[in-house]
């Protein structure tokens, strides 16, 4: 659990090619929910649909 798992996911998107990337530590209370959803959507587009987001 950390406040910015999206940064780690962005690095994984760049380093890996086919692996699914599961983010299970986004803290909604720390972040704006709309901004967080936009960031996850952008990561999903960058990764080619490999992002799995849950809490």
Description of the structure:
By secondary structure, the chain is mainly α. The chain has one domain. The protein is 47% helix and 11% strand. It is built from 2 helices and 2 strands, in the order H-E-H-E. The protein has helices at residues 5-15, 33-47, and strands at residues 21-23, 51-53. A two-stranded parallel ribbon has the order 1-2. Helix 1 packs parallel to helix 2 (33-47). The longest helix is centred in the C-terminal third of the chain and has 15 residues, at 33-47. The radius of gyration is 10 Å and the shape is globular. The mean pLDDT is 84.
Helix/strand layout:
Elements: H1 5-15, E1 21-23, H2 33-47, E2 51-53
Helix pairs in contact: 1-2
Number of helices: 2
Instruction: From the alpha carbons, calculate the radius of gyration and give it in angstroms.
Output: 10 Å
Query: Could you give the order of strands across the largest sheet?
Result: 1-2
Question: In sequence order, what are the helices and strands, one letter per element?
Answer: HEHE
Shape: globular
**Which percent range fits the helix content?**
40-55%
Structure summarized in a few sentences:
The protein contains two helices and two strands; from the N terminus they run αβαβ. It is mostly helical and 55 residues long. It has one domain (5-53).
From the structure above, extract its key features:
11% strand; globular; two-stranded parallel sheet; 55 residues
């Amino acid at each position: 659990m950390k406040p910015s798992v999206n940064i780690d996911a962005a690095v994984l998107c760049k380093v890996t090619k086919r692996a699914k990337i599961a983010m299970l530590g986004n803290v909604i209370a720390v972040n704006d929910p709309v901004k967080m959803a936009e960031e996850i959507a952008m990561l999903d587009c960058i990764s080619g649909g490999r992002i799995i987001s849950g809490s």
